[in-house]
Design brief:
The chain is of the alpha/beta class and about 210 residues long. It has one domain. The chain has 7 helices and 9 strands.
Length: about 210
């Protein structure tokens, strides 16, 4: 591919959307869900032609990164499949504290870029928020809307409860979300308008 064509290719430049923060992370616009009961299906349980009740659910990405690694590289390939479902949570790319900070920043930016891409195609998208330690607070909340609905995952958080709660409280202060979809069992200390989603029920897909 010629250099000029590369600079005109939005999937190479990744500069099609409004951004926020020091690092220019893409913005996922505020979209609220019109229902109180949230049901989710794992991205790994979605199908290209899903004729089941799963289409009434939202899609989550609280699974191993390799199961959705292609979404950022080739977002158009899975667009039709994900368009079948009620809404989408943005992909939960890992932000482990023992990752170098540039990798964590990359994960957050990819999370938001995919969300902005889906929204540009008319899909309903809720940003998934993740963090590692206080160093990640510089960027991990960028691109998420103020006063909207967000999602967080609880898988593996029991091993670092104090660190998780520190980041969760920071998220509450910075984003002031109207609703928090919590995938897994919330800690009793967690405040806010929490909508818990049971992990096991999300894997009982209808076939």
């Amino acid at each position: 591919m010629q250099s000029k064509k590369m600079r005109e290719d939005p999937l190479f430049m990744r500069n099609s959307y409004a951004t926020a923060g020091k690092w220019g992370i893409p913005i996922v616009k505020r979209q609220n869900l019109p229902f109180d009961e949230i049901k989710l299906v794992a991205c790994s349980d979605t199908r290209s032609n899903d004729n089941s009740d799963n289409k009434k659910k939202g899609v989550h990405f609280f699974v191993d990164d390799y199961r959705f690694s292609g979404i950022y590289d080739h977002p158009e390939r899975s667009l039709k499949k994900y368009s079948q479902y009620s809404f989408l949570l943005t992909p939960d790319y890992s932000t482990y504290s023992d990752m170098d900070l540039w990798r964590q920043l990359e994960s957050v930016a990819k999370n938001r870029w995919v969300g902005a891409y889906w929204q540009s195609k008319g899909l309903t998208v809720i940003p998934t928020i993740s963090w590692s330690n206080s160093r990640s607070f510089e960027f991990c909340f960028d691109g998420a809307p103020q006063g909207g609905t967000v999602a967080v995952g609880m898988i593996g958080c029991k091993r670092s409860r104090i660190g998780f709660l520190r980041g969760y409280n920071e998220m509450l202060e910075r984003l002031q979300p109207e609703k928090i979809i919590v995938f897994g069992t919330p800690f009793p200390e967690m405040k806010g308008n929490i909508v818990p989603v049971d992990y096991q029920s999300s894997r009982r897909v209808v076939r």
